[in-house]
Amino acid sequence: MKTILITGASNGIGYEMFKILDKKKYKLLLVSRNEEQLRKIKDESPNKDLIEIFSMDLSKEDAAQKLFDKCSEKEIEVDILINNAGFGIFGQSISMDNNRLKQMLTLNMITLASLCNLFGEKMKQLGSGNILNVASTAAYQPLPYFSAYAATKAFVLSFSFGLREELKKYNINVSVLSPGPTKTRFFAVAKANTEGILFNPSHHLTAKEVAEKGLKAMFSGKKVVIPGMRNKIMKAFSFLVPASATAKIMEKQI
Structural domain boundaries of the chain? Predict the structure, then answer.
């Protein structure tokens, strides 16, 4: 029976992934800062004996190593790693709180890359594995007022594509899920404007729809998946228009 580690598992896309995988009776390791919610999720599952929960703040610089060490101490072999945890900060970059910015950069990039490297090495030793990294459609172009967040997701995309080529010879698949705006707590946490065209809630997919597409892509070994036709069109548009022009256009839509 395979063991799947999901970061950011207490709500949104991560939680919907948990529900799908829980029904299939995988061994699940759920990671989130919200210990109370993790305990509730476990208690309500008919498969609670197959679930481990770790309450951790993955935005701290040593978080990836601590999580890996916890798994080693409990002799948990992770077959599938789902790097879903992440957040964004909306607003002018020059006005952002630097501590909050550092937390975002650490969580979205350093922790994700470190977890890939630590668990990827174990997967190499085991001779197989799967990694699903959650990026964003923001990864494909500059995004004013989400400038730093979009840059972190561009990192996730590029890092994952390179890692995929490095690890495939060891029977390890790396896939990327690039959601567009989704019905989660993301925009509330980011304190983002949702009245503009780009982030209007009427265009948002549900977290369940995104989770289903992401898991399907990962299990089929697909390189990248962008859920939703509107999001696919936006991504295609970003390749047709120079980045400088795209940034100007996007600024008018937010």
Answer: 3-253
Tell how strand 51-55 and strand 172-177 pair up.
unpaired
Regarding pTM above 0.85, the answer is yes
Residue 62 burial (CB < 10 Å; 0-12/13-18/19+)? exposed
Question: Could you tell me which CATH number the domain at 3-253 has?
Answer: 3.40.50.720
Q: What is the pLDDT of residue 64?
A: 98
DSSP letters spanning 11-32: SHHHHHHHHHHHHTT-EEEEEE
For the stretch 143-190, pLDDT in tens is: 899 999 999 999 999 999 999 999 999 999 999 999 988 888 786 776
- DSSP character at residue 75: T
Q: Report the range of poorest mean pLDDT among 52-66, 77-91, 104-118, 233-247.
A: 233-247
Alpha-carbon distance 165 to 154, whole Å?
17
